[in-house]
Amino acid sequence: MGRQPCCDKLGVKKGPWTGEEDKKLINFILTNGQCCWRAVPKLAGLRRCGKSCRLRWTNYLRPDLKRGLLSEAEEQLVIDLHARLGNRWSKIAARLPGRTDNEIKNHWNTHIKKKLLKMGIDPVTHESLNKEAKAEESSSHADHSADNQNTTENDGIVNSSEDNSSTPTENCSSTTDDSNLLDSICNDESLLTSLLWMDEPPLVDASWNSVPAGETACNGTSLPPWEDDCAWLPDCQDFGIHDFGFDCLNDIELNTMNTLEMGDKTVA
DNA sequence: AACGGGGTCAACCGCGTCATG
DNA sequence: ACATGACGCGGTTGACCCCGT
């Protein structure tokens, strides 16, 4: 038995994407929309795994992505979402417009984790480290800490909505001595509740996903819904926008992008 | 100027889940 | 109900960059 490889390993390129490959992928998706990632490499003329194409697109080439560091507000939201959802990065990302799960995961591991540790907060349980240490001292059961872990790791959700009585958010009220940050989040519980527990991603304008396949962006009259914000194009790679075949863009847009592109060329 | 160490982030890997036949 | 295939997710890796010595 065993699992079949997601793609034919022979002749499949790995490693960093080149500008040429990005162009091909963008061109293909702009023309055909997102469909059947497995078929994308072949159809787009890429020697890449479909999975790799999807990842490249969702994490880097997607037009609705924000670039750059997370803002303070975004960071706070991530912390609170993590307290509630655990390492469900995709769920967290869904509530942060323009951010990817990979980006948030990386930011968590490189910035937020350390920040929380500095503040004396366990980044896994969102409990005060002092409190946890005391708890461990007072309890000879190793189970206790394991339970804490399990609440976040086994099913991902630290506390379900059915059990709001013991949400980490409320727990954080009990550890406010250690965390002004979480305190501030706790104080805005109603806002967070409204943000967090609506099933549909409330913050994301996911219009990109609705770009219809085929007849979309560049073959004539209809522009994609994100067309009035094309600043991402020169930003996303160090290749020229003209290479994408963006004939649909008007002169003003092209001029704007050319200007940006000029600046970007220095990077290349 | 050269080197080393730490930080950052894009990309890969393997598994779980879901859809379909 | 089961098998299979495709997609999506989270963990991990490795290359690159920056900064201090």
Automatic annotation (TrEMBL):
InterPro entries per record: Homeodomain-like_sf, Myb_dom, Myb_TF_plants, SANT/Myb
Underlying gene: LOC18606338
Location of the protein in the cell: Nucleus
GO molecular function, one term: transcription cis-regulatory region binding
Protein name: Protein ODORANT1
Compositionally biased intervals (Basic and acidic residues): 130-146
Domain HTH myb-type: 9-61, 62-116
SUPFAM superfamilies, sorted: Homeodomain-like (SSF46689)
CDD domains noted in UniProt: SANT
Keywords, in A-Z order: DNA-binding, Nucleus, Repeat, Transcription, Transcription regulation
Organism expressing this protein natively: Theobroma cacao (Cacao)
